[in-house]
Amino acid sequence: MLKTQDLNVFYGGIHALKGVSIDVPAGEIVTIIGSNGAGKSSLLNAISGMVKYTGSVEYEGKPLPRQPHKVVKNGICQVPEGRIIFANLTVHENLKMGAYLRSDAKGIKDDFDRVYQLFPRLKERENQIAGTLSGGEQQMLAMGRGLMSSPELILLDEPSLGLAPLLIQTIFDIILEIKKMGKTILLVEQNAFKALSIADRAYVLEQGRITASGSAQELLSDSTIQEAYLGKKKA
Fold first, then answer.
1. What is the percentage of the chain residues whose pLDDT exceeds 90?
2. What pLDDT was estimated at residue 231?
3. Which of 54, 89, 149, 189 could share a disulfide with 93, CB 3.0–4.6 Å?
4. How far out from the chain centre does Cα 189 lie?
């Protein structure tokens, strides 16, 4: 579904991504794991058209436009790190903003129902000002807002960041539910164990380069990955 080839991103003199090539098949969860500053968010921002890059990004066999609104129109949404909700709008208004490029009234209504079914807590708070929600509720809102654009591919950037362990499990359960809806997910996550536990395949990004890839289970059982990212020491 999505392929990047030799992707390079520069911030002034900083070379953030160095020849990154990944493949995201339709219907799968693909995760990118790596330490803070490895370039994970830069990769998602390049795909979304938020930062300039060299190399190529293909979506369903065609070059992906490099303007964010055109990326959304092509069926890709990004749920950004830090959630970045509209704090002064209600939950319902935030979700409506996710559908700003759509004109299919019935489809929008159906997706409201689907999002509220997936996130019942949002339904309970649909008229509440979003800035007063808890961190976990704001993450749910950010994910729900992304779904309102009716995407085929969802880019999730650190969805568990700053959340309590119980809420982290809830968020990962919801990610699996989103997959069951037929969505494809590219997941960037520092919680390597959780990410690898739900993913189909995975890439390790270190200092802007892909250093390992394979099925998620292969990486989960790799002793080097375990030592570097899962807190386990080699025997």
1. 86
2. 75
3. 89
4. 9
Both tokens assigned to 72 = 């959304």
Q: Residue 76 forms beta bridges with which residues?
A: 153
Beta pairing, strands 201-206 & 29-33: parallel
Three-state secondary-structure class, residue 93: helix
Cα angle 141, 144, 146 (rounded to 5 degrees) comes to 110
Residue with tokens 């960041």: 161
At 105, the pLDDT band (50, 70, 90 cuts) reads very high
**47 touches 9 (CB < 8 A):** no
**What six digits make up the tokens of 26?**
């339709």
Q: What is the pLDDT of residues 53-82, one digit of tens each?
A: 999 999 999 999 999 999 999 999 999 887
Per-residue pLDDT tens for 137-182? 999 999 999 999 999 999 999 999 888 888 899 999 999 999 999 9
pLDDT value at 233 more than 80: no
Which tokens sit at 152?
Answer: 């085929």
All residues at 6 or more sequence positions from 191 whose CB lies less than 8 Å from its CB, including other chains: 160, 168
Reduced 3-state DSSP string for 100-159: CCCCCHHHHHHHHHHHHHHCHHHHHCCCCEHHHCCHHHHHHHHHHHHHCCCCCEEEEECC
Q: Is 200 left (phi over 0), alpha (psi -120 to 50) or beta?
A: alpha
Residue with tokens 């997959």: 179
